[in-house]
Amino acid sequence: MEIGVDEAGKGPVLGSMFAAAVRIDPDDLPADVADSKTVDPEDRERLAAEIRSMADSVSVAEITVAQIDDPDTDMNALTVEAHARALSGLTAEDVACRVDAGDTNAVRFERRVADRLDVAPDLYAEHGADETYPVVSAASILAKVERDAHVTDIAGEYGAVGSGYPSDQTTRDFLKRYVREHGRLPDCARESWQTSQDVLAALEQATLGEF
What we know:
The chain has helices spanning 41-54, 65-69, 75-88, 106-115, 129-132, 134-158, 169-182, 194-208, and strands spanning 2-8, 17-24, 57-63, 96-100, 122-126. By secondary structure, the chain is an alpha/beta fold.
């Protein structure tokens, strides 16, 4: 058995971030498992179902918008928290745990995750682990599918919101339209993100221009 851990949704302006941990024999993974960024949505859904059916156990942790906007924390700390919470949901003793490093310093990230665990697993954090180790690729797929489902739920409530990333024009148009109509950000938006602040600043400027 090995354990892989990865997160999805670190950079979007809308919605939660998710981390997934999977405990599985790498030989049981589907042959076409790969980093979720290189797999199209339909294949991700199929692979996620196959991974769950073959895995010894799977654990998913969610970091909400409210947690992300908390001024007493930051995304580095929250990424550590997400990985640690996902990993805590599995039996990790005597199993190699491979984690995709969510910090510029992989050794620091590895140490910070390990410090948050009640056990002392055989933990390894590496940059690009989701491209190197199939078990981390599997975790990447599981986390991305959870994030995709979350965005679908947001769209079900608000209409077309795009991918939730600041670079997505549909997402930016949604935020501008919502703020213009309601005078505030939607609950699904990360208020601390620069994209959100820019939309609010534009509304304030437009309001001042009316006087």
